[in-house]
Design goal:
The termini are close together. The protein is globular and about 30 Å long. It has a 5-stranded antiparallel beta sheet. Helix content is about 20%, strand content about 35%. It is of the alpha+beta class. The mean pLDDT is about 90.
């Protein structure tokens, strides 16, 4: 099974009109990660140049997920859905065939 981060990246590759903004806790520090067209990038800390280094590690605690219309404008995001739980996101992943 793919990691949570890889699954979310696959979702955005299948739905390129969406950007996922994921609020997570990694090692007792909060981070916000944007996932778009199959790629992840931290909005709060440097992102590794090596694509094999996960931005969203397996031990991360997902606090919530927002679905935002692309293109993402942090000044005026166009929300599709806000505050999605991981359980609700799993249903969306299934809808697009990401297991």
């Amino acid at each position: 099974m793919d990691s949570i981060g890889k699954r979310l990246e696959q979702y955005t590759a299948k739905r390129p009109q969406e950007v996922l903004i994921v609020t997570v806790e990694i090692a007792d520090e909060q981070d916000t990660i944007a996932i778009f067209k199959g790629f992840s990038s931290s909005l709060m800390r440097p992102t590794a140049f090596d694509a094999d280094v996960p931005v969203l590690p397996d031990g991360a605690n997902i606090l919530n997920i927002d679905r935002v219309a692309s293109p993402y404008n942090p000044e005026a995001p166009r929300y599709i859905q806000q505050g999605i739980s991981w359980e609700a996101m799993e249903a969306l992943l299934s809808e697009v065939g990401v297991n």
